[in-house]
Amino acid sequence: MDVVTLVGLLLGFFTLIGGMILKGAGVAPLINPAALVIIFVGTAAAVSIAVSKEQLQNVPKLFKILFTKQNLPSKSGMLTQFVDLSTQARKEGLLSLETALEQVEEPFLKQGMMMVIDGQPSEYIAEVMSRDIENMEIRHKANADVFTQAGTYAPTLGVLGAVIGLVAALKDLSDIDKLGYAISAAFVATLFGIFSGYVLWFPFANKLKQYSKTEVLIKEMMIEGILSIQGGESPKTLEDKLSVYLSPKERADYEAQKEA
Predict the structure, then answer these.
(1) Band of pLDDT at residue 131, cut at 50, 70 and 90
(2) Tens-digit pLDDT profile for residues 170-206
(3) Quick check: 26 and 20 in contact, CB under 8 A?
(4) What is the sign, positive or negative, of the torsion defined by CA atoms of 83, 84, 87, 92?
(5) What is the mean pLDDT of residues 149-164?
(6) Vertex 136: Cα angle to 133 and 139 (nearest 5)
(7) Stretch 31-38: mean pLDDT, rounded?
(8) Ramachandran class of 242: left when φ > 0, alpha when ψ lies in -120 to 50, beta otherwise
């Protein structure tokens, strides 16, 4: 479970409910089935029209990704692995890496190293692996766009809900007390629209984009390491090149691990 996402979600709902209570409105106005239908069903309808069937089918998986910690190899661990592979390649030759790759779990890295072992030129390897990253970024952007679209439509649907509520409220002006309550209820849809758009959908889209950037960075590091091994660079040179992908904290942890 990604605790940060869960905590942020809980804080968002706490802000909404707490704000209503502190303003003296209470939570009763939030129990508004009409507003919920207009915003959430309306948003689902608009998104269904705006995106493809394949994107919609990915939505359950995207929620799982949002609330699950990213299962990516650590950059310091990757650096250690590349130094070991480089050392073995320098001592025993590139063909000896085929046995070592049996212990490698990352498919992208294994694919690249197998192309090196097969004797493919560096330009070909770089092109194939870079194209793989580009296609992955396109898929990730399409997935994030589902929530971006939802965040775009929800606040506008909130205005629609307010208009519908006002039409219903102004239908009968004979009872002033009921009129005030009806006008108040009319703006609940706007509240839900703004809240869902800017506390749920847009942040969800941004988190998916951040996840994508992290994965891209790790895969770019893999390409750099694979091409360095193919070029016969020394383990020290490879270590210096790949260490630039590590944050200062990751570098400190890596150095501490080396000394240990």
Answers:
(1) very high
(2) 877 777 777 777 788 889 999 999 999 999 999 999 9
(3) yes
(4) negative
(5) 94
(6) 155
(7) 91
(8) alpha
> Residue 228 contacts by C-beta under 8 Å, 6 or more apart in sequence?
82, 86, 237, 238, 241, 242
Return the SS3 of 172.
coil
The two three-digit tokens of residue 169, written as one number: 């409220």
Residues 199 and 205: beta-carbon distance below 8 Å: no
Band (63; pLDDT cuts 50, 70, 90): very high
The residue whose two tokens read 């870079």 is: 130
Distance from C-alpha of 20 to C-alpha of 78, rounded to nearest angstrom? 49
Q: What are the structure tokens assigned to 127, written together?
A: 């092109």
Q: How far apart are CA 194 and CA 60, in angstroms?
A: 23
Tokens, residue 35 = 């507003």
Q: Which two tokens stand for residue 81?
A: 């692995």
Report the alpha-carbon distance of residue 59 to residue 199 in Å, rounded.
18
Q: Is the separation of the CB atoms in 68 and 222 below 8 Å?
A: no
Angstrom distance (rounded) from CA 249 to CA 254? 9
74: left (phi over 0), alpha (psi -120 to 50) or beta: beta
